[in-house]
Amino acid sequence: MKKIILKIAETEYVLVILFGLFILISRIFNFAPSKIIQDNFWLFFVEMITFLPFMFILIGLFDVWFPKEKVEKHIGEGSGIKGIFWVILLAMLQAGPLYGAFPVAYLLWKKGCSIKNIFIYLGAFSTLKIPALTFEIGFLGLKFSLLRTLITLPVFILIGYIMEAYLKNKNFEVKQP
Amino acid sequence: MVGVLTLPLESKYFGWKVAVLRNVLSFIGAIIIGLIIGLFL
Predict the structure, then answer these.
(1) Measured between CB atoms, which of B1, B15, B36 is closest to A151?
(2) pLDDT at residue A92 in the model
(3) What is the rounded CA–CA span in Å between residue A49 and residue B3?
(4) Angle A19-A21-A22 from CA coordinates, rounded to 5°
(5) Given CA atoms A16, A105, A172, B20 in this order, what sign does their dihedral have?
(6) Residues A158, A161, A166, CA angle at the centre, nearest 5°?
(7) How many Å lie between the alpha carbon of A3 and the closest alpha carbon of chain B?
(8) Measured between alpha carbons, how far is A106 from B18 in angstroms, rounded to an integer?
(9) pLDDT tens digit sequence for A5-58
């Protein structure tokens, strides 16, 4: 028993278990904020569970259908502005929260995408997704969205270049956890 | 662009140093974007 507990404590499941215990105990003692915490947890949990399977299917198909040479040619080292354009387009067509983008980033890396384009992909994914843009236009107006997009674009492309300059000779690799 | 809650996950893909660097750069970038938008609107 002690061994099992120690083993669990070493993994990240310890947080999940502590969270469960916290909810349970706060239910027993009628701790008021626990209601909000539970609602929030449920909201994010549903988002994750409905969206991640699709992401994994897409990643699987991408892995099988797209040959490495083609990906490398279009968004790999020395692909220039065209490569940037393709990764931004790829990011714009997706949906979901940022944690869904990391497996895609790993796959892009595996297929020979350049470092710069991986970070540009992450930047574009978090700021230029079309589903998020439609929400933004609805809430904040077309003018705001257009302006924000135009200003954001050069910023995360610059971040991509900075990351590449920093990581160039450092044997950087994207790992699969 | 910046995700503190996803940082542990991100670090599993990129390593802690790179993940933190990307977030810090994104944070600075986000502030710059905000300031520029403030100038225009």
Answers:
(1) B36
(2) 92
(3) 19
(4) 65
(5) negative
(6) 125
(7) 26
(8) 14
(9) 777 777 778 888 888 899 899 888 888 888 898 899 999 899 889 888 888 898
**Do A55 and A93 touch, CB atoms closer than 8 A?**
no
Neighbours of A77 (CB within 10 A): 13
- Whose tokens are 């662009």? That residue is B1
Q: How far, in Å, CA of A141 to CA of A173, rounded? A: 40
Say which amino acid occupies A129.
K
Instruction: Measure Cα distances from B1 to A86, A122, A162, A171 in Å.
Output: 19, 8, 15, 24
Q: Which of A7, A91, A80, A98 is nearest to B14 (CA)?
A: A98
| Spacing of C-alpha A173 from chain mean position | 17
| Banded model confidence at residue A158, pLDDT cuts 50, 70, 90 | very high
ipTM over 0.90: yes
In 3D, which of A98, A99, A153 has the Cα closest to residue A126? A98
More confident: A98 or A8: A98
Which one, of A112, A11, A12, A172, lies nearest residue B15 by Cα?
A172
Portion 1-41 of B in contact with A at CB < 8 A: 1, 3, 6, 8-10, 12-15, 18, 21-22, 25-26, 29, 32-33, 36-37, 40-41
Question: How far is residue A97's CA from residue A49's CA, in Å, rounded to a whole number?
Answer: 12
Cβ distance A119 to B15 less than 8 Å, yes or no, reads no
* Residue of A97, A144, A156 lying closest to B29 (CB–CB): A156
